[in-house]
Specification:
single chain; 1156 residues; alpha+beta; Immunoglobulin-like; nine-stranded mixed sheet
Length: 1156
Amino acid sequence: MEDQKILDRANDFKACQARVIFKWMTTKNLQTLQFDKYPPGSAEELFKFLQKKETTYAKVFAVICGYASLYCVVLTGYAKGKEFRPGDSFQGESNHSWNAVYIDDNWHLVDTKWAAMMRCNNNSTVSVEDDFYFLTDPEQFIYSHWPHQTEWQFLPRKYSLSEFEELPFVKPFYFKTGVQLGWTEKPIIRSAHGVVTWTLKNPKPLKFGYKVMLDNTNNNNNSLRNKCPDLKTCMYQESKVDETKFVFRAPRVGLYTVKIYAKSLEPSDANKNLTEIVEYLVEVREPAPDAAPLPPCSDTVWGPGDKSRKLGLKADTKSGVVTSFEPQVELKFQKTRSMRVMCKLRRHDVDDTILQRCIHVSNHDKITIALSLPEPGEYGVNILVSQPNNKRLYAHACQYLVIYLSDDEKTMFVSEISRGHSADEVDAAIFESDEKEKLAAWNIPAIETLEIQERRGPPKVPTDFELLPMMSESPKPTPSNLGSMVSFFDFTDRLVIESLDTHAEEVSQSHHDSFRDLMWDLIFSRHVTNELAKARLIFRWLTIKKMEDINFLSVEKDSPEEILVWLKTGRSSHAHVFYTMCCFAGLHCKVISGLTKGTNCKIGQSMTPEEYQHWWNAVYVYGKWCFVDSYLATIPLVNKTGSGELKYSFNENFFLIDPKKLIFTHFPDEPQWQLLNDVVTLDEFCFQPKITPHFLQFGLQTMSHKVGVIYTKDETEIQLGFPSKRTGLKFVFSLLADQKVDEFNGIKLNAFGMVECLPHSAFVRVSLPKKGLYALHIFGKEDTPSGKDISFSQVCEYELHQEKDPQKVVCPYPPCSSLMWGPGPGFYQLGLTPGNSRAIVQTKGGKAEVRIKMVKAIQLRSQVKLSQVSASQDLPLVVYKIVENMASFTVVATEKGRYGLEIYARDPDTQDTEDMRFRQVAQYLIECNETVSNISLPKVPPGFLGPQPKFTEFGLRTLNEHDPLIELRSENHIEIQLGTSRDMKFNAQLLQADSGQDASDFIFIQTQPSIVTFLVNIPSTGFYKLQIHGNIAEDQTHTSLGLFNYLIECRKVSEKVYPYPRQLGHWKEGCYMFEPLILHSDMKQDEVKFRTHVPKAKQVVIILDHNPIALKSLGPVQWEGNINLSKYYGTDMKVILAANYGGDEDRYATLLEYRL
């Protein structure tokens, strides 16, 4: 015991010697060192050689250590110095040298040259980085130094030169921060779309910074470089409590250098500067579509953080980047002290004074910042709070980046799918481009906003005001295209429209003595000259005004007053009143007589004027005849109220109706007033699909079936088109057979159809179970922020004729949770992108794959629903895997038929309790129309295979076996590796799938930095379930959580296998066994070499028959020794690997337990 203390003191003395030599060499200016004499071969001469750069710091350190009786060697190899850049390849013999010094029976790494450089760079007496290069941890040293003799890496797994070059280019301070790089571990990042995202995990509070540079080797063309905006404005940083995200949006193609800096927020580090932690080379092949400079705010960090919390502001919105589909955005905060909040809205191309009108701050118990953004784009919200000691002074608390998406960007956000062009997509693209051309072709002068005036009655009419009707001849009718998906709101500003409608409503509430007074008040008193504005004012006055309130002092025969008064008695119509008012407003107008389909009209029914006579208008506005139906624009809500008063609802869609839509419901007596190139006959009109006002309201059009009667044989798919900006549209349908029967053999007829929505189209797919006549009603609704709970309304109706019974049994669709198939709104809100172009996926070889692209780690689950008439009720196997940022669900069909795949998701980073639950975000129809081979798969619970929720949350990833369904054809051994981003503890269980027999003795777990390896031996043929569990190292609950499940099929036992040693306690904390992995009685090997890697151990031993045999230390963590086992084979003796971690020297913790 006394000898050990002497040895400890000696080792401490050696460490002090090495430290003194290291500090002297790194703080002394060796270039100015002078001696009196320089004898040949002396140490003095060596310093002279160093000054002439004829020797190295490593050689000098080794010589001085020799004079101090320290064992020291010089190592040569490659080092990532200040000239190194990510992507460089090392060539030649070596570019650097360093040392390994033997202290405390271990070799330790030292680099005096780089420590001296760090000291000079920091210009301080003692540098933090000095210590990093003294006795450096080999697991950290390998990131910057690679010796030619790889055994001097002192690592359980040796890194090749190519692997060393591919390690992230991190700097010494990186290891002090505890930052985890996540998916961006490679030094070179290649971006096909110009956008690169880094998500860094920081377990302790840190402040970050960044620098972006256009690589000098990228392009020598200065003019191109000068065209780049300030690159600092092309990158933003978003901070959360334990995570920081950087997003770079490249303004053009090229190579960029990105450096990330960090600084501790501990009080002791307050005066320290940001220090570089990692450098990347970013190769951009396409510029980012949204590479505009960021709004000019006070800071480079977006989102609430430590500063806002210290200033007493607790944010409800944790994310610093807020994406909105609507102009109205709210940010809410809790106050932890009395304060006032001031807010500034910023954007590059908009004056601050204009933006300040768009913001409202409510300073109450809870602070609410309400934004009304004027147009799509990116806005910066600067939030300042009053100082605690001086409420007149404001300090910057935090800032948000608010992205208000335009219609085009919404479409991209919702439907960014990498796929080929189907016929539907081509139709949609042509359809959208046609609409833009039609809009551009109609030149309408800007309409001025009518200022709201305080009214106490109608204005007085000037005595010289003369009201005269339009006397010139009207233009002849010609085909007119307004655009099938265009409304009045597409031609002018919404605020202008609201001012017109408000004025019309105010005028409707006043009493006018004459028609002249009315027209003066409505049109001429406000100096309205725009033709479209005049038509709008007349239309809205007529749809608002109560007929019973229309009275004049004098009504002469054939006067305008007579036309208006007759409206009460039915002797006149809305169309005649609209015509009269337009004529006196200076507009050409036409009363059109014809037939209109009522609610009771059936498809194909003969129509007569006696039953379906109607009148509507065409008004001539800036060179185009436009349809208006002011009568149908007022829809009765109820029959009669208790007061006997009718109530009406206004329908916007009967103002400026497109002729191609109006022909579905209105058939004029004069064909030229269809305003169509291809005139529709009465028979064609009668057999068109029956549409409702909601069809017009949603901007729908028939894309596939223009005739309302469809003759079917097998399957029918009806396509409805709509504009891409209507992202909230949803559709359902009902199916009724003859005599309004809604069932077939006890199954609802709706089960024989499905609805799928794409960005431009909705598809209704129906497979009728027997011949007969069916009525198909399609319903729609539009979810908006102000109306998510509105009910579905019918939009159109088709009549289906199944001419004969199907030749095969028609299988109903699976009874899934949602009425619509494909991705839902929640799918896109989580930043997910579908990898399949349609919601229907056909199997190939009995398998169908659904792919989902993720921009961040999202937890996903799935559930399969079977058809109600499925012959087998066995659920198909669903294989879930994640490779990089692509998740996929593979459904293995058990028989022909249809399967419903429901996908559920949650964001592990959410702080909202409601959003922490899994919610359905998509569902896909899997169709198997092929004969499936009889695959006998074991039954596993839904969602069992593949990554489990905690797998994503803990930042794990598969490195080799991505597919959780593994087939071993020629061997019965497999090695599975997982990548880790934090310290973890793992365990695993191997079960025979059918019998449930535990075979976990055939699993061995090996741990390395950032990698955990599972060695699995399969004892017999058949299916086995490998269940991997674990938890983060700092968790003290000893709870082991499910992480990943495999199903392994072993078809051949190529060699006899034996159990691995039992693994206990500390073995799971980074230990690694080189040899032996297995001991068994059949070995008959007398001398067995034990070689292992045990971090933090003071001594490692083999215990045989209660006697410890010490292993020799070869480095900081390596231990080895030869043990004679000849007399123990066949005795069932335990061979125990154990370690002492300090404290009681006679106490050892068992790591592994072999059995002979």
